[in-house]
Design a protein that fits this description.
Elements lengths: L3 H17 L3 H11 L12 H14 L3 E5 L4 H11 L5 E3 L15 E2 L5 H6 L2 E5 L2 E3 L4 E4 L8 H5 L3 E7 L3 E2 L2 H8 L8 E3 L4 E2 L7 E2 L6 E7 L1
Parallel strand pairs: 1-12, 2-3, 2-4, 4-7, 5-8, 7-12
Antiparallel strand pairs: 5-6, 6-9, 10-11
Length: 217
């Protein structure tokens, strides 16, 4: 039986030989397509049940959830920010101006330095897709979603999720994310937390300690 070193070297040599073969990409695509996928790939819930599941999962993760309508979105965002005493808030570049409250002064992402990110009261973004079964919000960091540092450094994140962006399963989400497959993606399932150290739950280690989600029906 070959040892681990030989096995690793053989795999590297095999991959190298395969990479030199112009037909290798096509064969790799065929092999990938032939992989059995017996797991659930499409949701079975209707729109209302899917949204209810998503909100229920967010509550499980200790996220703060508010439901609103498109017309009431600016007022709802203002209420959430005021409720938590937020004054210095950074708005992701590319956010539609009509969704932000006019009586609240935001700092534009492009004007925010590292100190601003570290000292601000929070950020506002939208998302690309949300997954009901896992309570996950996905940022592809396009317009309105901010750079990765915007979603990692500040202490509070307010994310606007529209009902049509919520899918039921992870495979459905990846289907929607296909155009962004080569982009950096951020998956958010509740406020940042870890229990790696002495099994004590600590918030804010890898991102914001608080997550506010405004669901637009």
């Amino acid at each position: 039986m070959p040892d681990a070193r030989d096995a690793i070297l053989e795999r590297i040599c095999s991959a190298t030989r395969r990479g030199a073969d112009e037909n290798a990409p096509a064969r790799a695509a065929e092999e990938f397509a032939a992989i059995a996928r017996p797991y659930l790939r499409a949701g079975r819930l209707d729109a209302e049940a899917r949204l209810h599941l998503f909100i229920d999962r967010l509550h499980d993760y200790d996220a703060h959830v508010v439901e609103t309508s498109a017309d009431s979105l600016p007022r709802t965002i203002a209420n959430v920010l005021q409720q938590h005493g937020q004054r210095k808030v950074i708005a992701a570049d590319g956010l539609p101006h009509e969704m932000l409250p006019r009586d609240f002064e935001f700092l534009a992402e492009r004007e925010a330095g590292i100190e601003d990110l570290n000292e601000c009261d929070g950020i506002v973004t939208v998302c690309t897709v949300a997954i009901a079964s896992t309570g996950t919000i996905v940022l592809a960091h396009g317009p309105g979603e901010g750079a990765r540092r915007l979603s990692l450094i500040p202490d509070r994140h307010l994310c606007v999720v529209r009902a049509h962006q919520v899918v039921e399963t992870v495979p459905e989400a990846f289907d929607r994310l296909a155009p962004s497959a080569t982009h950096p993606l951020t998956f958010i399932s509740g406020p940042s937390a870890t229990a790696d150290i002495e099994m004590t739950r600590i918030r804010g280690v890898h991102g914001p300690r608080f997550l506010d989600v405004v669901v637009v029906r």
